[in-house]
Amino acid sequence: MIKTFVKKSHIHNFGIFAGQDIPVGTRIIEYTGELIDKKEEARREKQNEKIGITYIFDVNDRYSIDAAIGGNNSKYINHSCDPNCDAERFKNRVFLYSNKFIPKGNELTVDYAFDSKEPLEVCHCGSPKCRGFINEI
Hints:
Layout: E1 4-8, E2 14-18, E3 27-31, E4 34-37, H1 38-51, E5 56-58, E6 63-66, E7 78-79, E8 85-90, E9 93-98, E10 109-110
Parallel strand pairs: 7-10
Antiparallel strand pairs: 1-2, 3-9, 4-6, 5-6, 8-9
């Protein structure tokens, strides 16, 4: 099992960080939480808008995982336009894999790639490759 820890992030609120060097292609952690259907996701997202944070991760066209209920450290993964992790979906599960070498202490990130048809969300990742928005443009 790959060691991770949570601390304040320069990207947003809290983040998940590498507790050890992580080689390319390593399965780091499963994104865990309650499996919910899209109707329930829409209901919860309305509630989450009020508090300004969500831990919902799309699995497929039918389901999402809400890490606010039963989630682990993976719920703190922040967005980056130049991420060091990719999300791999398998059935109704999501796993995070390193897509480059991640030195111990570095923040783990994934590209949220919000739908370009949704309202634009400003990005704060700080990457030189930042596209300015979390949405796919």
